[in-house]
Amino acid sequence: MKLIENVLSLFYPRLCAACGDALQQNEECICLNCMLHLPETQFHKEHFNPLRHVFDGRVPVEEVTALMSYKKANNVQKILHHLKYSGEKEIGKKLGEYFGGQLITEERYRSIQYIVPIPLHPKKRRKRGYNQSEWIAMGLSKGMGIPYLTDVLARTHYTDTQTRKGRFARWQNVKEVFEVQNPEKVKHTHVLLCDDVLTTGATTEAAIHKLLTVEGIRVSVATLAATTL
Ligand SMILES: [Zn+2]
Questions:
Q1: Number of structural domains, the chain?
Q2: What is the pTM of this model?
Q3: Which of 6-15, 98-107, 207-216 is predicted least confidently?
Q4: What spacing in Å lies between the alpha carbon of 31 and ligand 1's midpoint?
Q5: What CATH code is carried by the domain that includes residue 115?
Q6: How far is the CA of 33 from the centre of ligand 1 (A)?
């Protein structure tokens, strides 16, 4: 098997999702050099970090954090593009696990009982073949040693791509797209909502709103990247 892999990699080298260089045999998705230079925010280390202001006056949240800061043309943009549009779902798991390992070292994150990924509409999920947030949840789950649930939050309305809309229009667009299923599973628990990127926070806010309809629930947020910094 190893021989076949080696021969194949001569013709189809596996490439780093960040820098594009060929990966070494012991590297997965992102090369070691890029892993060492990820633009990490370290926001999980402080409760009152700049990112939590995204939800100020909008929804109550426990903790808010993102692994990396997203800037146009930095490696993070390339990584997320590979994760979402090139079928490289394993990136989500790898970075999720790496992030989860950091979160669990912080006391404030240790009361989290479940990880809940932001769902895609079934139609969109079929088209893409996977939900990238679910792969991030898988990684976080491994890194933090707690389960993830994909049957609590559902996306019931299909929304068009939102990239060119303003904040209010986006909010109008997303506010009724989520639905809570099996609320008894997360009653009186602390859940970590996860996604690939936090921009205006409109989608995340809508999801938190729905989750907060569950009795006694507390919600924290962790994304791989954040633009609002
Ligand atoms: Zn690299």
A1: 2
A2: 0.89
A3: 6-15
A4: 4
A5: 3.40.50
A6: 6
Centroid of ligand 1 to alpha carbon of 37 (angstroms):
9
In whole angstroms, what is the distance from residue 37 CA to residue 39 CA? Answer: 6
pLDDT of residue 201: 87
Tens digits of per-residue pLDDT, 130-176?
Answer: 999 999 999 999 999 999 999 999 998 776 555 556 666 665 666 67
Q: Which amino acid is at 215?
A: E
Average pLDDT for 107-136: 95
Query: Do residue 213 and residue 119 come from a single domain?
Result: yes
Separation of CA 25 and ligand 1 centre (Å):
13
Query: What distance in angstroms lies between residue 14's CA and the mean position of ligand 1's atoms?
Result: 11
Band (pLDDT 50/70/90 cuts) for residue 214 is: very high
Segment 63-87 mean pLDDT: 91
Strands 153-155 and 178-180: antiparallel
CA distance 201 to 195: 11
CA of 78 to the centre of ligand 1 (A): 11
Residue closest to 68 by CA, chosen among 136, 161, 120: 136
Residues 1 and 95 in one domain: no
Distance in angstroms (rounded) separating the CA atoms of residues 162 and 190: 29
Q: Measured between alpha carbons, how far is residue 71 from residues 74, 85, 103, 208, 225 in Å?
A: 6, 18, 23, 25, 9
- Is the distance from CB of 229 to CB of 51 less than 8 angstroms? yes
